[in-house]
Specification:
The structure is a single chain. By secondary structure, the protein is of the alpha/beta class. The chain has a single domain (56-195, 213-289), classed as Rossmann fold, CATH 3.40.50.150. 33% of the residues lie in helices and 21% in strands. It contains ten helices and twelve strands. The chain has helices at residues 42-49, 59-73, 76-87, 104-112, 165-177, 192-197, 216-222, 252-257, 264-270, 278-289; strands at residues 7-8, 18-24, 27-32, 37-40, 95-98, 120-124, 139-141, 151-157, 179-188, 212-213, 228-232, 239-244. Strand 3 (27-32) and strand 4 (37-40) form a beta hairpin. Helix 2 (59-73) runs parallel beside helix 4 (104-112) and helix 3 (76-87) crosses helix 10 (278-289). The N and C termini lie far apart (43 Å).
């Protein structure tokens, strides 16, 4: 059977007969319209789950990735942090950057929010060499569970597109275990609409290791109720929210309204006594900028 005619079952919803979406550099990606998920060939995913990744997150990988990590951390990642702090419905005592890489976001937060910098943590499973990492005391080389903390909020930026569905299931278990009730996280990743209509090159198996393209409905297959609630962020084709023991049904309008009534404790984080209202203004503006 030719590649174009081959059909597979969706690894998320088990729908049968999913067809080829695209072949990139010899790797087949399939598409499930039932749960809106674009995924690498399940046979190849099984090999990855068995310990043979497409991309080795080694010295060479980090050598090519450090510049992009720095650019994100001193720009859009700060915006995502400010935004999710406004959305979070509980007081934030500990915030975690999941998949922090070299930890540059911890450095930019220390600059932007110096009075609260010890609230912020970063965890990285495949860290670069120590000389290439942040010196922030809350940098953790290891899994989310290895941090040994309970978190109230966080961000996960350009990470989950690297994970197979099986890896995502494990990640969801760790997130549930390490979160306080009501914890709120923002995930920044190119979603299916983004890949289909804005940046097809985001589907990149060998250079960036992007193997799974998620959507809000696909994420709900992993972050399942009642433990989690997944919220779309209207206008953003590259981000969604996950709350732990979240509200049963939050309309897009209600989610937008949260930015005007944040927790006083969280408002205090963003309005830093030393650097002023910079991060508060950034959070408000980025939350509103992409409204349809």
């Amino acid at each position: 059977m030719s590649t174009a005619m081959r059909q597979v079952n969706c690894p998320l919803c088990a729908a049968e007969g999913r067809t080829l979406y695209k072949t990139i550099e010899g790797f087949d990606y399939f598409e499930c319209h039932s749960c809106d998920f674009i995924f690498l060939d399940p046979i190849r995913c099984s090999i990855i789950d068995g310990g043979q990744p497409l991309v080795a997150y080694d010295k060479e990988y980090w050598q090519s990735e450090l510049a992009a990590a720095r650019e994100r951390s001193w720009g859009p990642s700060l915006a995502r942090v400010a935004e999710v702090i406004l959305y979070c419905g509980i007081a934030i005592n500990r915030f975690v950057d999941i998949g922090t890489g070299p930890g540059y976001l911890l450095d930019s937060i220390s600059w932007a929010l110096p009075s609260s910098h010890l609230r912020f943590y970063g965890v990285e499973m495949f860290p670069p060499e120590p000389r290439q990492r942040t010196t922030h005391p809350n940098y953790v080389a290891g899994s989310l569970s290895a941090a040994g903390r309970q978190f109230d909020s966080g961000c996960c930026i350009e990470v989950i597109e690297h994970l197979t569905p099986k890896m995502m299931e494990d990640f969801a278990r760790q997130l549930a275990h390490c979160s306080t009730p009501g914890a709120c996280y923002i995930f920044n990743t190119g979603l299916t609409d983004y890949v289909r209509t804005e940046d097809p090159a985001y589907l990149d198996p060998l250079r960036r290791g992007h193997i799974s393209i998620w959507s809000v409905s696909a994420a709900r297959r992993i972050f399942r109720a009642p433990t989690f609630q997944v919220h779309c962020i209207p206008g953003k084709t590259w981000a969604f929210l996950v709350e732990v023991h979240g509200q049963a049904a939050t309309s897009p309008g209600a989610l937008r309204d949260r930015i005007w009534k944040p927790r006083e404790e969280n408002l205090g984080i963003l309005n830093d006594p030393r650097t002023g209202s910079l991060m508060y203004v950034l959070g408000i503006d980025t939350a509103r900028a992409y409204r349809p």
